[in-house]
């Protein structure tokens, strides 16, 4: 765990996200919610008159089947104040979509594990591209995990999957590591936006 460098902050700020991707990142950062809580958000979760969002559900996955359930703990059912600039940007995003869920599948239904994985992969590739790496990879390159080596000024390095698998096991290594790393970085993203 460490603070983001100026280079990393710039890459996150300059990444060319879709409206959906930017909204997802902002939800994680400004609300500080878990992945499942973010994916369970619906339009009616937000009350812009009161300036609050109700976190009451979480989505979990089992073999790409989504289940809508309660939050992880009783205290997880909560209201969070909406602050600017997030309040303005999330309202604009919500007004621009015609789906019930904020982050649905391409068919507009409840997010699935594979739809989330695809969105997250795109987010990571766009951050990588903003840091000076490639945004698109051919099938041969996709066989290796693409990791931006933040410690060497954003140069792109490829890490064989077997090394990571040896450390943590085969289940969802890429997404688990990226999710953890990225959520740790979100705090510093807000700081950079305020300072810029």
Describe this structure as you would to a colleague:
The protein is an alpha+beta fold and 196 residues long. The chain contains eight helices and seven strands. The strands form three sheets. It has a three-stranded antiparallel beta sheet, with no helix packed on it. Strand 3 and strand 4 (65-70) form a beta hairpin. Helix 1 (6-14) packs across helix 8, helix 2 packs antiparallel against helix 4 (86-96) and helix 2 (19-31) crosses helix 8 (173-195). The two termini are 24 Å apart. Residues 142-173 have low confidence and may be disordered.
Give the overall pLDDT as a whole number: 75
Helix content: 40-55%
Give the spatial strand order of the biggest sheet: 1-2-5
Low-confidence runs? 142-173
Radius of gyration: 17 Å
Shape: globular
Separation of the first and last Cα atoms: 24 Å
Q: What's the total helix number?
A: 8
Main beta sheet: 3 strands, antiparallel
N-to-C order of helices and strands: HHHEEEEEHHHEEHH
What class would the helix/strand composition place it in?
alpha+beta
Query: Tally of extended strands?
Result: 7
Strand percentage lies at 15-25%
């Amino acid at each position: 765990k460490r603070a983001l460098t100026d280079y990393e902050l710039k890459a996150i700020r300059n990444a060319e996200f879709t409206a959906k991707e930017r909204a997802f990142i902002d939800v994680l950062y400004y609300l500080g919610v878990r992945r499942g809580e973010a994916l369970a958000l619906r339009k009616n979760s937000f009350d812009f008159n009161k300036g609050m969002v109700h976190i009451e559900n979480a989505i979990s996955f089992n073999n790409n089947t989504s289940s809508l359930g309660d939050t992880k703990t009783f205290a997880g059912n909560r209201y969070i104040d909406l602050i600017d600039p997030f309040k303005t940007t999330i309202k604009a995003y919500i007004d621009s979509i015609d789906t019930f869920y904020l982050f649905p599948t391409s068919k507009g239904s409840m997010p699935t594990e594979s739809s989330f994985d695809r969105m997250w992969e795109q987010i990571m590739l766009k951050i990588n591209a903003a840091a000076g790496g490639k945004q698109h990879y051919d099938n041969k390159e996709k066989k290796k995990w693409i990791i931006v080596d933040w410690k060497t000024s954003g140069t792109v390095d490829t890490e064989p999957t077997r090394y990571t698998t040896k450390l943590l096991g085969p289940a969802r290594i890429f997404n688990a590591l990226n999710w953890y790393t990225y959520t740790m970085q979100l705090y510093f993203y807000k700081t950079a936006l305020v300072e810029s």
